[in-house]
């Protein structure tokens, strides 16, 4: 885990793309997309049906590593609202154990607006915790501090003749020293949108600067994506 100072708070980013908030003893994960493989299978694209197990194992590891007592999921928890009904027995047992062990809150997203908390936890459209808004999709023009998901940001670099892509967080800083952050997608099968894509930059306005951040070799790597013109 590597430390990240953001909007007046101290966080830790795990190697597995989760964000830990020590003051709140809270783990935040975005875009689990549980039962993505079974959704595609229903539509004729056959994938190994183990993505939910892998994703939940990653969540369990992050909880053990951080000692988190709370878990907030930032939307698109299942790939569709009916996904919780398709969860196979082993994964269902894993999820139920995780929600019993923590204070678990599901924030709904555009993929699962009607999801049911079949395996525990509570459901919210969005929350505000200690002055930090937790929601699925960044709200353009938001002036409060904000944590969100939705865009699956991925940093693409050209390194030593090779194209490299890494999932990352995207952080904006405003003139008052506040900020907003889009978390990387956590699910095992999730793809990614270029971190500097116009949709991401627009969602984080107004801002003074926008950067991609990710853990690398035990440190926080930061890459500028956008700066307000002087």
CATH architectural designation: 4-Layer Sandwich
* Spatial sequence of strands, sheet with the most strands: 1-2-3-4-5-6-7
Q: And the CATH topology?
A: Purple Acid Phosphatase, chain A, domain 2
Mean pLDDT: 91
What's the quaternary structure here?
A: single chain
Give start-end ranges of low-pLDDT stretches. none
Q: What is the CA–CA distance across the termini?
A: 35 Å
In a nutshell, what does this entry contain?
The protein is of the alpha/beta class. It has helices spanning about 35-40, 50-65, 85, 90-100, 200-205, and strands spanning about 1-5, 10-15, 20, 25-30, 70-75, 105, 120-125, 125-130, 130-135, 145-150, 155-160, 160-165, 170-175, 180, 195, 210-215, 220-225.
Describe this structure as you would to a colleague.
The chain has a single domain (2-227), classed as 4-Layer Sandwich (Purple Acid Phosphatase, chain A, domain 2), CATH 3.60.21. Helices cover 20% and strands 35% of the residues. The protein is built from five helices and 17 strands. The strands form three sheets. A seven-stranded mixed sheet has the order 1-2-3-4-5-6-7, covered by helices on one side. Strands 8-9-10-14-13-16-17 form a seven-stranded mixed sheet, with no helix packed on it. Helix 2 (51-66) runs parallel beside helix 4 (89-101). The model has no long low-confidence stretch (mean pLDDT 91).
